[in-house]
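ok here's TolC family protein, seq below lol
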Amino acid sequence: MKKMKRYKILIIFLIYMTYNEVSAQTIGTVPSKELNFREYLTRVGKNNLNYLAEQLNVDIAQAEIIAQKVLPDPDLEFEAADETFSLGLGYSLELGNKRRARVKLARSMAEYEKLSLEYYFQELRAESANLFLEAILQRELLHVKTDSYEYMRQLSHSDSLRFLSGEITENDVRQSRLEASALLNEVYEQEATYKSALAVLNQNMGATTDTLTVPAGTWEMLEREFDLSTLIKEGLEKRIDLLASEKGIEISTNEYKLTRAERRPDIGLSLSYERDWNGFLPPSRSLTGGISIPLKFSNINKGAVKAAKFRIEQSNIRKRDLALQVRTEISQAWYNFGYASALIELEKTCGIWDVEF
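and the structure came out like this:
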């Protein structure tokens, strides 16, 4: 009787484990394709929707340069009375090179937008690289958990045979079965995490999740050495955010020049022609011209000029602060890299790692 019970438990267990094995193999049937790191970054640069939207800022800034080149529009005036009518033309003549100052400021803004776009692209590439490595990490974790589950499944199968021969108890079989089931749940959870990481890769490339992108390649150990002083020097020369800060000083300077130019008065020129409506008698006609000069009493208030001058000083201070921040960030990254390299060497020396790179 006990032998029949053992056979019954064994059959139920085998059916259960077979179902779990099939389920583990068939979960997530979304089509996928492999993509190497270089091609992935290329697609991100070409198809990332946020990056494409940021590119339009440069086009907008270029259009603003054209818009600032416009000249003042003339005024056409017409007046009529019972016996006379007059036709006049007026024009506002800008002084102080206002148009030139506006165009120069718009060009500085356009160059700043180009630097901002390049900085955004660098940040996008860095984030994309992290997402690619994250997907590889989740894939490796999935392999580890799948192998653990497969080992426990085989162990449970072995325990069922040992139970059948009377070497272990029924509780031992149930315990191994529960452990295998728990590991299978972890496999399902990890597979969902892995597929979610792949979906983020698709989003970064501006693609839908109809076909998931699987990162091609494995972990590699790159032996590299860096010199702190060289890194700081290159950072101060090539960091895009620092170059953008320098362009910000130029923008503040051009804004100051434009503010001073706009304080110059504009001269109004006018020309009018007047005659009577009577066509039978000798017509009375006259041609008059005029000039108007506004009295800029408001220029006594120099608040706008002072504010523009303070912005230049503020931009210089922010540049110095950003240069200090660049030095600090590079130093911190160098220290962390040295710590991580030393930790890896220590673990390899102690024999903790048993992984082939």
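fwiw The CA atoms of residues 105 and 254 lie 5 Å apart. kinda neat tbh
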